[in-house]
Design goal:
Blueprint (H helix, E strand, L loop, with lengths): L4 H8 L4 H32 L8 E6 L2 H4 L12 E7 L2 H11 L3 E10 L5 E9 L1 H7 L15 E7 H9 L4 H4 L4 H9 L11 E4 L8 E2 L2 H8 L12
Parallel strand pairs: 2-5
Antiparallel strand pairs: 1-2, 1-6, 3-4, 4-5, 6-7
Length: 234
């Protein structure tokens, strides 16, 4: 079932942008987690069958409100719920794409091949009825069947992932991040998950469910050059 809540948000967001964005996320977060946990199990099974490499992994995130609401009304919020699939090679990307995209409706696709070394396939989709029925078969929440989110998946190799996080195509560089400001906000405990930091999960080869990252782990993933102060980790 196609999710039309995005269009509702584009209208309502003019009244109270943060409130409606939070509602937008809350109504779909449970379903997003159902799907990423399914992907984690699926990738683990592919690995055990020798179809996928041991290095194949997933990162997932829900965009922070501050980041999402910088977009003007003309931009569709189809990248709020995002999955990054990091593969050993381009051949593995093709294999994984074919398996995943059997159960989705593609909305749009873009192939990136930038001068700074960033090379990836970005694809927005929503799940088809067959997989939604399978994922919610044991759920008592009937509403969960209606609001699976539009998801943006990014397929990239490990080499490109490293460039996009630590090298020539890093988030800090192309977004021109003021790392000193980020450090100040961090030290004053002003960086909050869901507001100015995304919620993030990483795949776990030893468990069925994705592992949700703590605030400090998200900061380390977003800003690798930032040296966090020493403090007790929860």
């Amino acid at each position: 079932m196609k999710n039309n809540f995005k269009e509702q948000l584009k209208v309502n967001i003019k009244d109270d942008r943060f409130f409606h964005y939070k509602k937008f996320v809350i109504q779909q977060q449970e379903q997003f987690e159902i799907y990423i946990n399914y992907l984690n199990r699926y990738i683990n099974s592919l690995r055990s069958e020798g179809v996928a490499s041991n290095s194949l992994r997933i990162r997932a995130r829900i965009k922070a409100a501050e980041s999402a609401l910088k977009n003007d009304d003309r931009k569709a919020l189809d990248d709020v719920f995002g999955i990054e699939i990091i593969c050993e090679s381009d051949n593995e990307i093709n294999t994984v794409r074919e398996l995943i995209e059997k159960y989705v409706y593609i909305l749009k696709q873009k192939i990136h091949d930038k001068e700074n070394g960033y090379k990836a396939i970005h694809c927005s989709f929503y799940l088809n009825d067959k997989i939604i029925e399978m994922l919610t078969r044991d759920s008592a929440n009937k509403e969960a069947r209606k609001l699976f989110p539009i998801i943006e998946v990014q397929y990239k190799t490990e080499n490109v992932f490293q460039k996009a996080n630590f090298g020539s195509a890093s988030h800090e560089k192309y977004k021109k991040i003021d790392i000193n400001l980020i450090k100040k906000l961090y030290e004053n405990n002003q960086l909050k998950l869901g507001i100015n930091l995304p919620f993030m999960w990483v795949s776990d080869p030893n468990h069925n469910t994705m592992r949700k990252l703590s605030t400090d782990e998200v900061i380390e993933a977003m800003y690798p050059s930032l040296k966090l102060k020493e403090k007790e980790r929860i």
